[in-house]
Amino acid sequence: MTTDTRRLPPRKDAVVLEREGRPRMVVYVFGRYVRAAHWIRNALLIWLVLSGIYLGNPFLARSLTGDTSSTFTLAQVRGWHVAAGWILLAFTIARIYQFLFINERGRLGLGKELKMAPILVNWKAWRDQLAFYLLMRREHPHFTYSNYGPLQYLVYTALYAALLIISVTGILIAAPYLQSGVAVWSAGLLSPIETALGGIANVRTLHHVTMWFFILFTLVHIYMAVWNSMRTGNLLVEGIISGFAAKDMPDAREATDDDFEAPGEPAAEDTTKEG
Amino acid sequence: MTTARRHAGPDPTHHDLEARTQEHYEWLAAEADKNLDRLEAQDPVHDVTLDDVLKRRGLSRRDFLKMSAVMTATLGLPPMFDLRVARAQEVATRLPVIWQELQSCSGNSMALIRNANPGTDELLLDLISLEYAEILMAPSGQAAEDVLADAIERYDGQYIAVFEGSVPVAEDGGYLTIGPTGETGVHKVEHISRHAAAVIAAGTCSAYGGIPAARPNPTTAMGVADFLGQRGIGTPVVNLPACPVSSTNVVGTILEYAMFGRLPSLDAYGRPLWAYQDRIHDKCERRGHFDAGEFVEGWTDIEGLKAGLCLFKVGCKGPMAYNNCGVVRYNEGASWPIMAGHGCIGCSEPGFWDTLTPFEVPLAGRVYSTPFGTDADADTIGTVALGAAAAGVAIHAGATALKAATESRSDAKKEQ
Lengths: 275, 416
Ligand code: SF4
Description:
The structure holds two protein chains of two kinds.
Chain A: E1 15-19, E2 22-28, H1 32-56, H2 62-65, H3 73-101, H4 123-133, H5 150-174, H6 182-197, H7 200-232, H8 236-242, E3 244-248
Antiparallel strand pairs in A: 1-2, 2-3
Helix pairs in contact in A: 1-3, 1-7, 3-5, 5-6, 5-7
Chain B: H1 14-41, H2 50-57, H3 61-74, H4 82-91, E1 96-101, H5 107-113, H6 120-127, E2 129-133, H7 141-154, E3 160-164, E4 167-168, H8 170-173, E5 177-178, E6 183-184, H9 185-194, E7 198-202, H10 204-208, E8 221-222, H11 224-231, E9 237-240, H12 247-260, H13 273-276, H14 287-292, H15 302-307, H16 325-328, H17 337-340, H18 352-355, E10 367-369, E11 375-377, H19 378-415
Parallel strand pairs in B: 1-2, 1-3, 3-7, 7-9
Antiparallel strand pairs in B: 4-8, 5-6, 10-11
The complex binds iron/sulfur cluster.
Iron/sulfur cluster binds near residues 286 and 319 of chain B.
């Protein structure tokens, strides 16, 4: 892995640009893994939503698919839906592990992002962030100990909760279609959840309803990223492709840990300041 | 109650499994022999013998043994139990049964007695000592009540109580009164269950409340097991849901009881695993079409209906329902709903009337009542929410553009 470079002087390498009438430094914020994970999961979610809608209500009529007695269309779609679900779950587990256990130095410990949780009950931060989104203040609020605003923190936590819910319900739905394997085995462990929900029908309903959380999240996420990028000139949308985004000059405010973050660190996966 | 065992853990090796299964069956057989001996030593409670019944039905001993073998397979037992099942039927004459109607349509009784070709199921009905069953018995009014009181007293702690219908508990049980004294259903269930050796809840209403318990459940109807749990009555209950319950499942459960002296192992919803561990969908003759994506597209798709394609798109709930209908079928194996051309409605699932309706669209089309007074399915609600979010986005974007314009104007002024 990379050496610990975070005590280098603040971003000598940064290119200073004039954005929105202010000098900003353009720095590398999203590492390779973060960007790859973002787009892979994006593709997975698109496939999962489309194939999931088909599995819930197979819209391809016989007149479209022709003779499927040898291709087994639905079984194929189901297989690839489940496969994509497992990959998404792997990303989700890795991300939750990072959230809980990877500390500031990129080592095992109490998660750096977990320690940001107090932002959720920081009423001043809530006021500042909401005022910013409601156009009542012009400057993006800066949260000293958190990469995320409170709204953002809440929504991302909900996103991971939703990912877990849709994965668990997905495993319970998939298991009866399989003879053996990890889905069958884990569904055995998870079956009390099915019972508590009142049967497989409610498990399916929950799986279906949770899908809509992701659809709504996607719309709001894209809008907020674009909006932030334009409003504050922070190049966030470009950043998730190139890795580079604009930041305030360190001297414009008190320097924080953020300014020392060097590429290669397991940076917060999504340090966009939207919510 | 044991928990659901539909999803087995990691498989032991094949060899282990075989040896252990054999061992288990031998143990079971010994159990059965012990229990059958005990029952045989008892005096029959009524003077019908197997031979009488067979003669009346025009069946030979050979026919009877064949039927027993079929029943053994249905119970998930190996051939070494064939003769034990036959014996269990003979000694069933020593098993007193009380059949009590509750808030029900009597459809389960009807299904039991209305079979076209009498077979094992009806045979057992003749054999068991049905002490009390409103639908079938001659006495009525006070005479019937006397029979019941007498049976409860005589076979205290030995009889099997079968309930049909839900228990309405609202208004102190006032929604259901039975008999010349207007006794409430609540009181009847309490009294009969307390003195029973075991309780069978026949049909979905008595298992889970069924249709009377569908929202808004005006009578606060509930299943017998839930009701007994609430009243702290510990008599073991086995649920045999379905609408109506197949006679095979009732008879099989009674036979299991006669054979082993205890109720079968149950899933998480109190249903015997031998009958309810497999999904309708996994034992369905149309399943190949499902995996191929070949569906009956609607009730006007005559071609699809004739070809026997999968009924998922016309609302089959087989993927959400557990029962053995596809294997034992109804009316002496003549047919079952999916074979007849209508999707499964999942009638043996708890709360099916609320969770699996509407019956003729896939589960994804489940309808919710919304605060706006209209009902809608999840996708409609989601689409409306998406539209609302898009409108919110558009308004926010417009407001931001306006704000940015005023900001840059005031910036320009400041610079001057
Ligand atoms: S008809 Fe119903 S139970 Fe049979 S395969 Fe189709 S969906 Fe499954």
